[in-house]
Amino acid sequence: MITATTRVACVVGRPARHSLSPAIHNAAFSAAGVDAVYIALDIEEAALVPTIETLRAIGFVGASVTMPYKEAALSLCDEVGESARALGSLNTLIPLDDGRMRGESTDGAGCVGALRAAGRDPRGANCIVVGAGATARACIVGLAQAGAASIGVVNRTRERAESAVALAPDVARVAGANDIPDADVIVHTTPAGMGDSTDTAFDYSLVRSHHTVLDAVYQPLETNLLRTARGSGATCVDGLWMLVHQAVEQQRLWTGVVPDPLVMRAAAEHELARRRR
Hints:
Helix content: 25-40%
CATH architecture of the largest domain: 3-Layer(aba) Sandwich
Number of strands: 12
Largest sheet: 6 strands, mixed
CATH superfamily of the largest domain: Leucine Dehydrogenase, chain A, domain 1
Mean pLDDT: 96
CATH class of the largest domain: Alpha Beta
Radius of gyration: 19 Å
């Protein structure tokens, strides 16, 4: 129930109204007994600075930042976390006790958390990241911080792959599809397979039973990649788990409470089902 003392959290972006974050975070607040409400703010670029300043002024709980403002919001922060600094972008704003604001990226933590929940800790693992965009870059940083033994980046454009590899030069390298069978973990981050798309980012017949395969796509939950991987006996992790686990880390940063990811997942699935009706 919203009361006179209820505080605000939000996602800021454009578009933002399609976001699953309100369902996910409101479920976490409710389960933890936190007097807060999470809303979507779909704003124009010119409104970004005044929106953030208003959030500061009202004592907000925290905020998620989505495209296209992940880079611009970084310059509005007084402190920047290690992951956000490495990526040059953020997805999380955290109010500090002294009125200042910290920026962080939890997308990499979402990748790592989803893998760990599936029983595959990236520490010491040989990983392949397919793609070199923003999601891939966050996963590379997260996997490196989690102690991955190696990270091969497979991308159609070598220049972009090299740029992504530079985020974790001690463990990352440009890789090819022929490296996929020998990996322990495959993290797919391209739009291939999203919606009704039948596009493929690599040859799915390269997936083996020993692999753990995470597909960052979550609409549909059962992508062609995961369907093929499951048929090969691989451990499969859908993109909704990654979304949930990055939100788990956001909740921890905002409230100090680590919420139950199952509660957040159930809320997301309920919202997806509602939209399909």
